[in-house]
Amino acid sequence: MEKIVIIRYAEIHLKGKNRGYFERVFTVNLERAMKGLRHELRRISGRYLVENFDEGMLDEILGRVSRVFGVHSYSVGYKVESDMDAIFAAAKLVCPMSGTFKVDTHRADKKFPLQSMEINREIGGRLLSERKELCVDVHSPAAYVYIDVRENGNTLVFGEFLKGLGGMPVGTSGKGLLLISGGIDSPVAGYMMAKRGMTVDCLHFHSYPYTNDQAKEKVVDLARILSRYSGAASLRTVSVTHVQEAIHEKCAPDLMITLLRRFMYRIAEIVAKRNGDQCLITGESLGQVASQTIEGMTSSNSVVRSLPVLRPLVGFDKDEIIERSMAMGAYETSILPFEDCCTVFLPEFPAIKPKMSYILEEEAKLDVDALVEEALGTLEKIEL
Amino acid sequence: MIYYDNAATTRPNEKAVARAGIYLTERYYNPSALYGGGFAVSGDLKKAREYLLSRVADPVSYELTFTSCGTEADNQAVFCCAKRGNAVTTAGEHAAIYASMTELNNRGVQPRFAKLNADGSVDVDDLLRLVDDKTAFVSVIHVNNETGAINPIADIAKKVKAKNPHVVFHSDGVQAYGKIPVRLSKEIDLYSVSAHKIGGLKGTGALIRRKSLALAPFVYGGGQESGKRSGTENVFGIMEFCYAAEEKFASLQEDAERIRALREYVRAGLDREIFTRLSPESGTPYILAVSAAGLRGEVLQRMLSDNGLIVGTGSACSSKHRFSRVMTACGYDEKTLDGVLRLSFSPENTREEADEAIRILNATARELKERTK
Hints:
Number of strands of chain A: 15
Largest sheet of chain B: 7 strands, mixed
Shape of chain B: globular
Strand content of chain A: 15-25%
Largest sheet of chain A: 9 strands, mixed
Shape of chain A: elongated
Strand order of the largest sheet of chain B: 2-8-7-6-5-3-4
Oligomer: heterodimer
CATH class of the largest domain in chain B: Alpha Beta
Helix content of chain A: 25-40%
CATH superfamily of the largest domain in chain A: HUPs
Order of helices and strands of chain A: EHEEHEHEHEEEEEHEHEHHEHEHHHHE
Mean pLDDT of chain A: 92
Number of domains of chain A: 2
Low-confidence stretches of chain B: none
Radius of gyration of chain A: 27 Å
Structural class of chain B: alpha/beta
CATH topology of the largest domain in chain B: Aspartate Aminotransferase, domain 2
Strand content of chain B: 15-25%
Structural class of chain A: alpha/beta
């Protein structure tokens, strides 16, 4: 009797004639997730089977499967010969000792001597006679025993359905550039886009020496955590030190963040285009901080010429974002006390609803193109 | 690269590392083993123990237990002595004592923190006021690791014991051991030291204890270190500590005088428009704390490092833990606290280096001032 993992996918079945493409990408992603672990992955009518793995590594395999977008659910089960005694032996392993249960058989092999209902009755009956505290409930059982009699002479027996992440296979919805800070929100924003199948590249702005190497390292760690889901292999960084100094020197202090963000968006669009990214992604949530008001967003959006700016968290509360951050395993890193903006430049009272005319007037005091060009010269690429 | 962060850690003494190498390659036996090799190693540890102890205390009345670091020695002192009533310490302690004392709150013992003078030494009157008949434990740092101020621990211990003779008196001597003359007086019960501030390695420390004081273990196990600290001894680290200490103690006075002159030379070279001195002249020669008021210490530190000078700082860009707890307790204003730098020396530092360090300090501070004006 061999232990197996059964993986079912989400939404791909909706894809009609493109289904083959989605399945191929999904297969590649699953293989990448299980890289380094002995296993065989096989596709069988709308599902995947993981076989031939070391049973001691089962939890590791489940953990990795649980982080692949496109997985709807997965189960641990057994592969046995299509023989009632063998099926029963496996059924005993997946069925609990007590409580209500139901046997549910799918018989693809129409040559198998018993029909589905007969198998249900036979296996259910045997389980009942061995386990006195079990009780059948066909409407809302506490546990299921699924039996899948396959055409190749094997039968799969499994119980619990574990919920996968859902979403679409990463790589099927284009490529975007995430503006990643060291905070809680941006990694979650990247995660949300990866969930819908987008490959997420990362760009981080630092202002060394006003921010430190630890803050940068923290972002590298966050990008690594995100890459477990998003498949991205690198993080780009750009220094906005001189931009900050120039704003500090020449412009109204309450616009520091507003103006800085306009520079970040300009630089990000150029980096994205060079890199084939089709959109910018940010972790902004409406009204969360002074720069994330609709006025703030209008101000930063207006410098992006031809790419959409996606803000998957725009309608989320902080609590909801934190919950997702914890679920993706980024929270502990996000709350490390290394800040990505030095308090040297933080205005006491940032502008909350800056008028466009005021912004443009202040920005006109700067040589925007030269500062952008200079910042682009500091671009670094870090392999994750 | 000029290294002025020796109070954080020193470069390991190369000769001592080479000499101790034999404990990695040949005499690697477990000192608790009963065969010849193990017994020989335990004999070597015994000699090292006696040497390290006898430099600062009378081996007849005191004993030395090796620990994994100064912090562990401090923790053992706090948690194995402060078990009831209250415990008194200063606002100028290293985190090893400060955080342990704060934790006492959760263990039913009330911690009390005495005020500091402006130079970072403890306000002795305030400390004595906090000691009462319920006080079980008092800890006073010997040399303040941020300002370099020296607390007169012998005198303080005497006064504390006069007020309550049952108190266990401890001092964190990490910044004093091997750097300034130390002789433990009979009122001092416990004294923590560390290897890596004097050319030793990280991962080696010791707790010196007056023999007549019964002390429970902090780490339990195989009963090493006479049951006071279980766990196989870090033989290489301990032997290297001993060899490094031999060199330090051999020239302790000359080094201290030379470094005092170096400290004053650096001080005199700093731009008075930018830097103010925070360290007292009477403090340890090894530490010079200054403030570049109005500049952010952490930013300045990074720029200095990029320009070839490594220093310590007492301020951060973080909005939550921006200022040093100890410097704040000294009573400085926010601008001064923002710009705190700690220059800390070792006998390896030369006069030529000092000229270069002064140049870098002045130029870098002026540059940052210009960039953030």
